[in-house]
From TrEMBL:
Main location: nucleus
TM region positions: 41-58
Coiled-coil residue spans: 65-93
Molecular function as annotated in GO: chromatin DNA binding
GO cellular component terms listed in the entry, alphabetical order: nuclear inner membrane
Name under which the protein is recorded: Man1/Src1-like C-terminal domain-containing protein
Gene Ontology biological-process annotations: negative regulation of BMP signaling pathway; nuclear envelope organization
Native source organism of the sequence: Rotaria magnacalcarata
Residue ranges annotated for the Man1/Src1-like C-terminal domain, each copy included: 10-153
Length: 197
């Protein structure tokens, strides 16, 4: 019995139905449904904006990294090119210094307004060049009474490398040419396989 009424499972005796939820009007239910839909829509928009912002940030970071790498490799290539050109000038005219000051190279390749922005990139270039012991050497030179750090190109020119390789190849070929004279006169093996006797 509840509130003066008896519960029954016999449908013929049912006079009223009970529900755990309060009876609501259609307008009230519609208002609640609209509120839930609006809340879910706002959450969806916020989530989408967050994902788009993250994707934009990652893309921007990736693009900046690619640009920095491109600047790094361009600087590295241009430094090697300048040093090689200086070395070639020195070979043609020994009065010219075979090295270039590091600060002078930086001023040639990086404008004054970009030097601060590319400071880390330039440090990477210096570190990489200093590790190339076989190609470029670092040393200190007295320039107008001031000791400065310089780079010197040490790698042999392509013409010299090719001539050395050709000379070595010729020597190796000559070493395997057999003599026309037999090993000894006692051994009668020379020309023993010839058929034009």
């Amino acid at each position: 019995m509840w509130n003066g009424k008896v519960q029954t499972k016999d449908l013929s005796n049912v006079t009223a139905l009970s529900t755990k939820e309060a009876l609501r009007s259609i307008a009230c239910r519609a208002q609640q449904d609209i509120g839930k839909t609006t809340r879910n829509l706002i959450l969806l928009i916020i989530g989408s904006i967050g994902l788009l912002t993250l994707a934009w940030y990652l893309q921007k970071k990736s693009k900046a990294h690619e640009e920095n790498e491109e600047k790094y490799y361009n600087l590295l290539e241009n430094v090697n090119k300048l040093l090689e050109e200086q070395h070639e000038k020195y070979l043609r005219d020994p009065k010219i210094q075979p090295w270039l000051a590091i600060n002078q190279i930086r001023e040639k390749l990086i404008s004054e307004k970009d030097q601060e922005k590319l400071k880390d990139t330039w440090e990477r270039v210096k570190k990489q060049i200093d590790s190339e012991k076989s190609q470029v050497t670092s040393e200190s030179q007295d320039v107008n009474g001031e000791i400065v750090d310089v780079w010197r190109w040490e790698k042999a020119s392509p013409m010299k490398t090719r001539s050395k390789t050709a000379k070595k190849s010729t020597e190796e070929t000559t070493a395997f040419i057999t003599s026309e004279v037999g090993l000894t006169e006692c051994l009668k093996l020379r020309n023993c396989f010839r058929t034009d006797k």
